[in-house]
Structures are given as structure tokens and as C-alpha cells.
Amino acid sequence: LSMKNILRAAVYPNLYGLSLYNIDEESARCLFTDEILSSGIFKNQITTLFITIDKNNEFYEEMILSATNICNHILTVFTSLIYLTLYESSYKKRVPLLFDDAFLPTFRSSTLLKLKIRVQCFDDCLYLLDGPFNQLHTLCVDLVHINQPHEIKNQGNLPNLKCFSLSCNLGTNYYDELILPLLHRMSNLEQLGLYVAIFIDTTFIDGNHLKKNIINRMSRLNQFKFYIRSFMHIRNQVNFPSTEDIQRTFIDFPNNNNIISYVDYFSEAKQSQCHIYSYPSFMPYYGNITNNFPGGLFKYVRVVSLFDEHPFEHEFFLRIQESFPFMEQLSVANYKSQNYKQSYESNNDNRNLSLIEYSFLGELVILNVHDDYIEQFLFNTKTYLQNNVLLHIKYESLKRVTHNFTREDTRINCAKINELKLYDKTKCSNSSLQEYFPYAKISYTGKL
């Protein structure tokens, strides 16, 4: 039975919430334009709506347009809506929406109080705050990127907003210009979540900065959850702050026992970064993890990236899997060979390594890596992958590690790849490659 038939089959006087998973444009139009439902239960009863939008469309622009068309129906049909979630806990299935009066002329409501959503850019975030929802008190927004908006139309206070959460996986150069000014408009904010990566020039974001520029500006703030990774290039600095220096800035910070911080310096790349975050954490992303990672459990993180100028050993990957059990996307960047690999091989000790099982991993990026890390993930004696994994890898590296697509040690995991994106290679007709990846759709992207 379809959802439409179920809802029309009986009277549901106590039904106030509705969840629709993986809905596509045609199904949404059929459901939302039904005269009986739209004039009855949808209009008068449903106050809570949870929708995830189908992401099977191959073309990104068409997917966004389809999602936009679905959203155009929602608030004209569900006129009593108070809580709306257009967000999927699974990162792979999240559809970023594009908001603009031209695209969504009917996406507005005078009853909506709480909205959780993923959008394209900072423009979309401002649009949601400054226009269509005059009663909104809670906004949780996940952005694809934070770039300079085309125009900041409204810079007034947002007195109704009590709870705000902002997250973005990609780093931004516009923390001072965009994020802080936006937060300063939220004078009555009681709960704040801030999960961002920031490119800075001279000074890491630390406890002193957060107290001065955020906490002291919000007199009603009683909960502040955050993950902030500040990243800068090393130029002519002489004295660099240590992890202990950063941690001391949180001594008189609210809930100071639950703040974790650490600093990484990369001498070869002439770069440095500082992680600061509240724990336990609700952050969806954790970027540029190094061997200095202090561990912990991060149940909400779906996207992880690893980078270091020192080797990642097998035990490190085991720690990562244990800390991020629901990780869906993993990127690794490390050109240093593993120190202990040779000893394992010389002692024929691979069987004694703990098998690392990635139960939810759907996308693996191993482009800028030493061959050891390709073996780390493709050897079925070291790593257990689920089926239907998207793999990003350089063609020549893959060819080398798999011994020209003949190696038995890597065959099992390669058979679990359902999409293979090959870099640094134009399309070639290699029957051995296709046979080695029997279930994979293979594409070539040329140069990185």
C-alpha cells in the first residue's frame, strides 16, 4: 500500500506527526495534491513533519530542482505545521536545498516554530532567518559551504530566535565577516551549536575568543556546544601556542571540564591547526584528524578526514573506527609509509591484526596517500568493508597495489565497490579492471 492509500483508508483523529522517507517529486506531488488529504488531515492536524528527499538523481542540478519543487508544496499544504525537519541523519542521503524567492515563493509560514534543514550556502541561511518564518524560535542548519553572500539585505536583531545550530564541513574564510555578525544578531539566544572549520591569519580560536565574542554577547545563553577547527599557515611566527596554552584559556569557561583542545603543527606543509570542542559532542563532522587525536566516542559524526606528516599505523585506524562507529565518509591523506607494516609481513603476522569493520562506511577517499594505506583498506585481512562503497583513488596507485588487477589479497574488498572514481587517468578499455570490480560503475575524472 502507498502512503496515500493508508492515509485515506481511515480517520486518524490523533495523528499529529508524519514522517516521509526518500520521497521523490512525483510521489510528493501525488500525495500533497490529493484533495481529501490536503483539505483535511494535512491542513488541520499535522503539526510535525519529517521528510527525507530521494537522492537517486544522477544530475546534481536536477536533484536540487526536484527537491525545491517538493518544498514548494509543503507549507501550502501543511498550514498548521509547527515543527519541520528536511534533514537526513545519513550524510549520504542529505539533499542540500536552495532557497530564494524566485525558486520558493510559497515556502513561508506564520506558524512554524522549529526548522531543521540542509542548505547550499550562507545566502540560504540568511534567507530563512530574515524572511519567511516570523515565529521561528529554533533553526538547525547544515551548510554545504560558507562563502561571501551576494547581498546581506537585513542586519537587524532576531529576537524570537532561542535556539540556533550552524554546521559546515568545508572550511571558510568568512568567520569574522559572516558568522560572528550573524550570532551578534541573536540577542535572546539560549542554546547555540557551532560546528565549523575556519581559515585564520594569526591567532587560533580559543576559550578567550569564545568568551569575548560570543558568550559575553549573549546574556541568556545557557548551552553552548561547539566544534571549531582553526587552520593557519606558518609564516614568521616564533612562539607557537601549545595544547596546554589553548586548554588554559578554558579554565573559567562554562562547563570547563567538558572542553577538549589540541594543536597540530605540520612542518613540511608549513601549516598548523587547533581543534577545540565541547564533549560529549553533537558535531556531524570531524576534519584533519592526526595521530594526536585524543580519542572519545562521537556518535553523531558522519564525515571524517585524516591527515598527518607522520605514519598512520593499523592501531590508529582501529581507534578511528571505535571513535566514529557511524562514520559514512572517510578521507585519508598521508604520504608516509607505515612503520610496522614490514614487521607484520616479515613475521607473517597479518592474521593477528584486529580486523577493522566499517559497518556504515559508504564513501572512501584515498587519493593523496602512500600505497600502504591503499593496502590498509583493500586487504580483507585488515579491513572489512560493507557492500556498495564509493571509492575515490588514483588509477596508477590502484593498478600498482592490486598487481595490475590480479592480486588475491585485495580482490574481496574490491568486489564490494559499487562505484569507482579513478583520477589521473583518461578513460581506458581494461577488461581486467572491470572484472576485478565486477559490481562497480567506473568513471574517470582525469587530473586532480
Question: Topology, please?
Answer:
Blueprint: H1 3-8, E1 17-23, H2 25-32, H3 35-39, H4 41-44, E2 48-53, H5 60-77, E3 83-86, E4 114-119, H6 122-130, E5 138-143, E6 163-168, H7 175-184, E7 191-199, H8 207-213, E8 223-233, H9 243-248, E9 259-266, E10 271-278, E11 285-289, E12 303-307, H10 314-323, E13 329-333, H11 341-346, E14 356-358, E15 363-366, H12 371-378, E16 383-385, E17 389-394, H13 395-401, H14 411-414, E18 417-423, H15 431-436, E19 441-444
Parallel strand pairs: 1-2, 2-3, 3-4, 4-5, 5-6, 6-7, 7-8, 11-12, 12-13, 13-15, 14-16, 15-17, 17-18, 18-19
Antiparallel strand pairs: 8-10, 9-10
Helix pairs in contact: 2-5
Overview of this protein structure:
With 448 residues, this protein is α/β, with parallel strands linked by helices. It has three domains: 1-154; 173-283, no CATH class; 286-448, no CATH class. It has helices at residues 3-8, 25-32, 35-39, 41-44, 60-77, 122-130, 175-184, 207-213, 243-248, 314-323, 341-346, 371-378, 395-401, 411-414, 431-436, and strands at residues 17-23, 48-53, 83-86, 114-119, 138-143, 163-168, 191-199, 223-233, 259-266, 271-278, 285-289, 303-307, 329-333, 356-358, 363-366, 383-385, 389-394, 417-423, 441-444. The strands form three sheets. It has a ten-stranded mixed β-sheet. Strands 11-12-13-15-17-18-19 form a seven-stranded parallel β-sheet. A two-stranded parallel sheet has the order 14-16. Strand 12 (303-307), helix 10 (314-323) and strand 13 form a beta-alpha-beta unit. The radius of gyration is 24 Å and the shape is globular. The two termini are 47 Å apart.
